[in-house]
């Protein structure tokens, strides 16, 4: 394992310190927690948006804190959902009286911990709504689908809706609309290494790739011979489009898994756009970069989001979150 | 035979020892069909449990287990935090009021724990999760009329081993579908350590 | 070699296509060249800013095109300076009558090719000024110092100055002020692989790092035992501060070399900030991310820029370049 | 003996063959003390040169070399593009007007090439660059009174080999300081191929 780090068991707290130190005017950390919030939290009468999950997905989740996106992010240990008490701290810190939406990725652990936090918050009289993102089409069973890079679009849309003054129900509905219309799929060229164990998450031959990976170094759903950029783009895009039949006008995200140079992501984007054009699908907006990662995994995912007028407007509205400036 | 505060503390202490000793092994099991953190998670949680219990004076088994449950829930995270936390919390609730817990109460408490875990995890037996160790244990103990360390140990062991042949339908291992077969379920293995620790604490007596 | 790519000899042109396809409203590619410019180029009476260099440094250089930063970027083959005719195309495309500043990194090839382009442009009656960035303190000999991540600050400041309507000379002076006040140094944990050769740029043991690396996979100036995040931060920051004695209020950039997870960069930033605070140096603004990379090299660099009031104002003025939004 | 259009074309064609054949070797040399692209750069450039010359009718050596020079400048990039481009451009300018170039003109042309490269690269002899092959070649030819293939070949070879012991003070290898010693300079090795090709084109005659 080659990582720039100090003690593995301090990695999350040190990372959060480093993150906050880079943006002292914009974010703050709630002392003795792994919760980072907007500096100006709570904002009176605005629905608060809280997301989070295990660490190792940077810039998710703290990078999406900002006007127009998240109010708070809760960081768990590496690849481990944060605990209910931490999520509760976040909820309390951002509640400005209009309620709080939790954006949860569909993993057993995340769903349970956030749900318990919601129960605790409700007991303290805070209105809490939850949405569970499950955009990963690599999993056939829709109930079991993981939440991956599509989560970033949920942050964006829900955040914009909340910023516009919508009610908790309206914000939740906008988030649900994204979830119903977003699909992703990814491949890995190399595994990632948990800082605490120092072991690669799987072994891959020099000419192999894992198709249908999640964002925790889990093995994918299939192992294949390493394809070209074009072949990878075709495989991912077609798989997604099969699941998104009504696609007309869409947003595209080509996401790096942590160690993928932007050059390679642009190659994939080139082909994705070509495929969409051929199929008569119009691209409204494209995002190429590292948005939802898996430590130092090499590989990429493609995410497509079906848009209507409401979603377009919300996608375009400003965000000053460092990882998604609009 | 009853189950005392000392035994409860002993149970958790021994559970912690086994989990610490097998931390890497548990993570490796999770590496194969999950995300490789199960040993790290359980070790972090039980280390905190033992720290929490240390030096405290407990009058009731329920209080010991409640502290353990709350610590697991706030220190573990992931899937195992809420699940093991719920298990111990349910046991704690069911044994509340008894200074020394009778066999009948204990079995009823385990039954509540299984129900709680099933509800929390929206899972049933046969899905390749810790439930596959906890649920058969309750069935077996319901058929007995007193604590029996070797029964507990054997039952946990065989249930744990049986998870190898199951195709996962819950938790991260479910993503692998058929490829999850042939691997032990990590949460079942740590559950086995916990029941082994229970057996030992029973053998050593109060 | 494991890369997401198609034919290695098409990698630059395909990457540019993918890049432009992601931002169709903002940038355009000059047909049959490797030049990307702002969509609205040339801008009348604004000094044009052209940068460029070999490919493989993404998001440099095209990612810095935008209002408030570059007008055009010229991409060479991987790690190879672009040729004079390409640079000339860029100069012609962005000249709005107020002249053009070339931002060049101090490598023999870049200096020569850009200089030849400047001669050709002058022959066509375009005012051209050049600045050569040499921020890498790993090289003792100041004349031989490479241009690395500090170049991004030159883009930012020169771009802001030009946007404010300054003359070519004023823009050049602002750029020179940055160059005089910016210093960088980097380490590598793993080599990079040229797409065309498929071979790693050097071999490193599991517990080794190269200190004093450039951005082309060149070996560093020293090989050492892999340090912790804190040790790396201390080594780089102290080396830079020795060369930047007058440091009072500064901008910090912690830059990933291409395959470094943001988590690790935040750990380094944490310690850099701690060191600066201990030394009584005030951090005005911090940038953590991948700004000037070396394909899929793992590692990082630290850049410090001494600020005065003019530089602070220019650093703060807006930029809509995708890789450095302000 | 004079140097003809056919020989000039032959020179460049053979240069290309050698460079293509040794592309990986040249890149490996550059890997050791530079950025590993020298073979790729030269191969890309000379491939384009040969394509450019192909099928064209040339009346003068100068036109052949000018096309080569312009192609190298616009297709190579990096350090070698402007430097080899400048070298051929200077030769071309110096032999302009002569359909068959005399030895005296050719030597003078090479002298101009060296001056041009030195000026472009702001470098002198002894800095571990291609100049360490080109400059001794001019000195040696100035001492002769006609083309001599074996002299050219031997001189280029020994100069190229001598770059191994030099500590680089220009180009990327200079970053390595003492560590640059013990490695051949890639640009000197490709220069050696170019002079070897020149020698062969002289031997094969018009
Ligand atoms: N839905 C569920 N119901 C019951 N137990 C589950 C469920 N999901 C996972 N588990 C148990 O949790 C274990 C994994 O725990 P752990 O690795 O710590 O959490 P995570 O999966 O979040 O990384 C599995 O081996 C399994 O026994
Ligand atoms: N300043 C210079 N003067 C003369 N020749 C130089 C100079 N710098 C580099 N070279 C030559 O160029 C060669 C490197 O070319 P190449 O690898 O193609 O370019 P780059 O260094 O830009 O990657 C060196 O081996 C050396 O012979
Ligand atoms: Mg986990
Ligand atoms: Mg796990
Ligand atoms: Mg080069
Ligand atoms: Mg080179």
TrEMBL record, chains A, C:
Signal peptide: none annotated. It comes from the Bacteria. Keywords: Kinase, Transferase. Residues 7-324 form the DhaK domain. SUPFAM superfamilies: DAK1/DegV-like. One of its GO terms (molecular function) is kinase activity. InterPro entries: DhaK_1, DhaK_dom, Dihydroxyacetone_Kinase, Polyprenyl_synt_CS. PANTHER family: TRIOKINASE/FMN CYCLASE (PTHR28629), TRIOKINASE_FMN CYCLASE (PTHR28629:SF4). This is Dihydroxyacetone kinase subunit DhaK. The gene is dhaK1.
UniProtKB/TrEMBL annotation, chains B, D:
It comes from the Bacteria. GO terms for molecular function: kinase activity. The keyword Kinase applies. The keyword Transferase applies. Keywords: Kinase, Transferase. Pfam families: Dak2 (PF02734). NCBIfam families: dha_L_ycgS. This is Dihydroxyacetone kinase subunit L. It comes from Thalassobacillus devorans.
């Amino acid at each position: 394992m080659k990582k720039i780090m100090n003690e593995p068991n301090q990695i999350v707290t040190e990372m959060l310190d480093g993150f906050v130190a880079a943006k002292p005017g914009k974010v703050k950390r709630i002392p003795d927690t792994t919760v980072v919030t907007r500096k100006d939290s709570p904002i009176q009468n605005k629905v608060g948006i809280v997301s989070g999950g295990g660490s190792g997905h940077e810039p998710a989740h703290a990078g999406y804190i900002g006007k127009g996106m998240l109010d708070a992010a809760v960081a768990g240990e590496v690849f481990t959902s944060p605990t209910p008490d931490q999520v509760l701290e976040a909820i309390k810190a951002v509640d400005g009286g209009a309620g709080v939406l939790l954006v949860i990725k569909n993993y057993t652990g995340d769903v349970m911990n956030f749900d318990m936090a919601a129960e605790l918050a409700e007991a303290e009289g805070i209105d809490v709504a939850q949405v569970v993102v499950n955009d990963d089409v690599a999993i056939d069973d829709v109930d079991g689908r993981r939440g991956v890079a599509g989560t970033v679009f949920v942050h964006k849309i829900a955040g914009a809706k909340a910023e516009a003054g919508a009610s908790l129900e309206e914000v939740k509905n906008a988030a649900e609309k994204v979830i119903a219309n977003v699909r992703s799929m990814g491949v890995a060229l190399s595994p990632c290494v948990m800082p605490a164990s120092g072991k690669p998450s799987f072994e891959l031959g020099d000419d192999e790739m894992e198709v249908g990976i999640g964002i925790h170094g889990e093995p994918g759903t299939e192992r294949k011979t390493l394809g070209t950029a074009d072949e990878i783009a075709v495989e991912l895009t077609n798989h997604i489009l099969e699941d998104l039949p009504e696609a007309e006008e869409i947003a595209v995200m080509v996401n790096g898994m942590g160690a993928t140079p932007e050059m390679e992501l642009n190659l994939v984007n080139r082909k994705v756009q070509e495929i969409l054009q051929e199929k008569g699908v119009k691209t409204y907006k494209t995002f190429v970069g590292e948005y939802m990662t898996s430590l130092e995994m090499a590989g990429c995912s493609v995410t497509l989001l079906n848009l209507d007028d409401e979603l377009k407007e919300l996608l375009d509205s400003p965000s000053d979150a460092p990882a998604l400036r609009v | 035979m009853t189950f005392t505060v000392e035994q409860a503390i002993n149970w958790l202490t021994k559970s912690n020892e086994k989990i610490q000793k097998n931390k890497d092994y548990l993570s490796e099991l999770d590496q194969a069909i999950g995300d490789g953190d199960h040993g790290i998670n359980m070790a972090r949680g039980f280390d905190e449990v033992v720290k929490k219990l240390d030096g405290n004076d407990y009058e009731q088994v329920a209080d010991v287990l409640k502290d353990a449950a709350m610590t697991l829930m706030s220190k573990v995270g992931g899937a195992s935090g809420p699940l093991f936390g719920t298990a111990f919390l349910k046991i704690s609730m069911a044994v509340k009021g008894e200074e020394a817990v009778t066999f009948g109460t204990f079995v009823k408490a385990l039954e509540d724990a299984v129900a709680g875990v099933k509800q929390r995890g929206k899972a049933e037996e046969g899905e390749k999760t810790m439930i596959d160790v906890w649920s058969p244990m309750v069935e077996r103990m319901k058929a007995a009329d007193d604590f029996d360390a070797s029964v507990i140990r054997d039952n946990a062991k065989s249930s744990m081993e049986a998870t190898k042949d199951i195709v996962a339908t819950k938790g991260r291992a479910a993503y692998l579908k058929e490829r999850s077969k042939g691997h032990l379920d990590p949460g079942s293995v740590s559950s086995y350590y916990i029941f082994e620790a229970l057996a030992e604490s029973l053998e050593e007596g109060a």
